[in-house]
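Archive maintenance. Older records in this collection stored only the sequence; we are now back-filling the structure field for every entry so that each record is complete. The fields below show one back-filled record exactly as it appears after the update. Entries are processed alphabetically, and Cyclic nucleotide-binding domain-containing protein is next in the queue.

ARCHIVE ENTRY
Title: Cyclic nucleotide-binding domain-containing protein
Organism field: Diploptera punctata
Length field: 355
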Amino acid sequence: MDIVTIPPIEVFGFFAPRKDWLYYIAILRINRLPRIFLLHEYFEERKSRLNINVFYMRLLSLILRCLLLVHTLTCIHVFLQCTIKQCDIPGITFKPGHRIHTYLYIMNTIMQTMTTTSFSITVGQNIRTLVYFTLLTIIGIMFSAVLIGEVYNTLVMATFSIGKYVVSVNKMKASIGNNNLSESLIKRLWINVVNFWNIQRGHHYPKMLAEAPSSLRQKVNTYLYEKHLRECHVFYHCDEDLLRQIAVTMKETLYLPGYPVVIEGDIDNSMYFIHSGEVKVIQQGKLIDQTVGILKAGDTFGLAQGLLDREPHFFTYYARTQAVIVRLTKYKWEHLLDFFPAAKDSIETEVSYLG
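Back-filled structure field:
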């Protein structure tokens, strides 16, 4: 495609009379038209990513495709009926300084033709123009059907998450009602439910992905979390295959501001990686609690607790802002070290320093 679209053929327009340069340059730039397919490939590639809002990407893609189609058909109509000095279009008195008016008039004509089932406008006496508008009407009918389908699919995508979320919330409310929880706890749970929707719009780690084959989950989790393992000195000398399998066992959790991640004295055999947001480190005192520090995205805490058996946490960690924390629990991955002796020796050395 680049061989066809990159050559600057429009430079030959400068060989035309000076007053006609813009007209011929515009015509000779027709070789740029196939690059529209690159835009299509871009949106298809973007929609396949995990870290984007698919709804807005589909909506933007739909709007741009409609605009490009109407613009392209408008330009073709201009080439068919307009010359340098005149336009054979009923209702238009062509003037050199009124090109935008001509363009908008033709665009309106194109849009009317594509949204009707017959010619409700005058299209001129030119036979090629009549053939063009006949084909345009057929294309318009098919395009309208495709457009309605795309709009419907986009709207369904926008409402699918909230519908599924409402079902989950109703199940939780039924469970709470059957277990007679206290009013204060119910209130906290409800605030958490509302905040989750306001923040994530129901886009959590997909259940189908959690149940997908191990090889697929390895690829996804490696893409999402492997950087945390690579930046942690405990795993510096570990093989690529080991890190990939460890990444499968990592679990992501969203914490709202003020929510505790770990309480001082907890024993959970887990280490934590801050994927995004900030975490406040608190040391509990007899009278007052003292803030020890603030951890940010990319930081790690609980290394000793995630490597040693039954090691309690020495501090309390609260989410200072909305924070996504990735948890790595020892018993879920330590058996893998039997297959990687070199990595096992390296990690055991790090454990000896911690102990």
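Update note: The longest strand covers residues 270-276. The chain is about 55% helix and 10% strand.
Entry marked complete.
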